[in-house]
């Protein structure tokens, strides 16, 4: 909670057992990823990107 996604990826992620590692995906241009409500997530942009977030309900 007190570090950036990039810092977490470098420091914490390598120490996690494989069964406890989060799901990962890489989106390509034109693709969209939907997160259900209350779904914990983090993002790491590898290049210039656009991010849109909205809460429905």
UniProtKB/TrEMBL annotation:
Organism: Thalassarche chlororhynchos
The protein's name in its UniProt record: JMJD8 protein
Assigned GO CC terms: nucleus
Domain of life: Eukaryota
Gene3D superfamilies, sorted: Cupin
Pfam hit, one: Cupin_8
GO function terms (MF aspect): cis-regulatory region sequence-specific DNA binding
JmjC domain location: 1-57
Source taxonomy: Eukaryota, Metazoa, Chordata, Craniata, Vertebrata
Gene name of the record: Jmjd8
């Amino acid at each position: 909670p007190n570090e950036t996604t990039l810092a977490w990826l470098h420091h914490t992620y390598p120490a996690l057992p494989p069964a406890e590692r989060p799901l990962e995906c890489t989106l390509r241009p034109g693709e969209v990823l939907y997160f259900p409500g209350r779904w914990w997530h983090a993002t790491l942009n590898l290049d210039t990107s656009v991010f849109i977030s909205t809460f429905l309900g």
